[in-house]
Hints:
Elements: H1 2-9, H2 16-22, H3 27-41, E1 44-50, E2 53-58, H4 65-70, H5 74-87, E3 93-96, H6 100-114, E4 123-126, H7 129-137, E5 141-144, E6 148-150, E7 155-157, E8 169-172, E9 176-179, E10 188-192, H8 195-205, E11 210-214, E12 226-227, E13 237-242, H9 247-262, E14 267-271
Parallel strand pairs: 3-4, 3-8, 4-5, 8-11, 11-13, 13-14
Antiparallel strand pairs: 1-2, 6-7, 9-10, 10-12
Amino acid sequence: MQLLETLYRQSEPKDLEELAKSLKCDMRTIRRDIESLQEILGKVQGIELRRGRVSANRSGFSAGYFTAQLETGADAKEAIAKAVVALLPENSAIALTAGSTTYAIAQRIRRNAIADESPRNLIVFTNSLPALHELIAGDVSTGILGEIYAPDDCAFHSPEFRSAFQPSIAVVGASGVLLQNGNNPAPLDLFSHRAEEAAFLKQLLKPIPELIVAVDSRKLGKRHPWSFGGAALAGKSVTLITDSVTDEQRHLLDAMSQQLAQQGTPFRYQTAL
């Protein structure tokens, strides 16, 4: 409360070290408190007292697919986000696609940026409006991918995608990930629940050499009507990050890794829990 009142009263930015001294605490405490305030203020517009009952006014996202997925598997998504951000090199340009798991990744990037932890000096472009808000809150260099806003996804898409932004890594969410064995020419396929999103992602990912696919285990083995992976992943370096896999899935992933390597597509996977 002292921090919030201090920030409310002052008209100019205050040096972090000076602020810590005035509040008689460590700079790390100030960073943690700022993170907590950003988390709360990003979700609560105000407080209401009506008929003896107190409630918070929430600035929720548009109702739809994205919002419905937010509360599902929150612990798994947080663990996946932590694992993904640990893989991101400093001073790199990242494309971050829309989705509830990738939104958790944007939140983790914001927390690390506020705490001045690695990875530093990222440039992260995204087609997710909620993720964009998180990146801006963390003072991360960012921008929008796409032109047409879809409220159901809280995301931007484009029928024809063109951008001067040239990321070295794409962090990708998916509504489904199909794992296949045998002589299938495309043993790994990624799916979207929307045709527009799948078409947009095919264009977006085409020139990017490295992909990190971030999905919770519920999406493994799940197929949707619209694919944006398969043969489009050929020649790229692909890392799959999920929360957990079954023994059967582990054997399948090991076999896929060998098959994809023979096709010139380095593939590895990692479990976050």
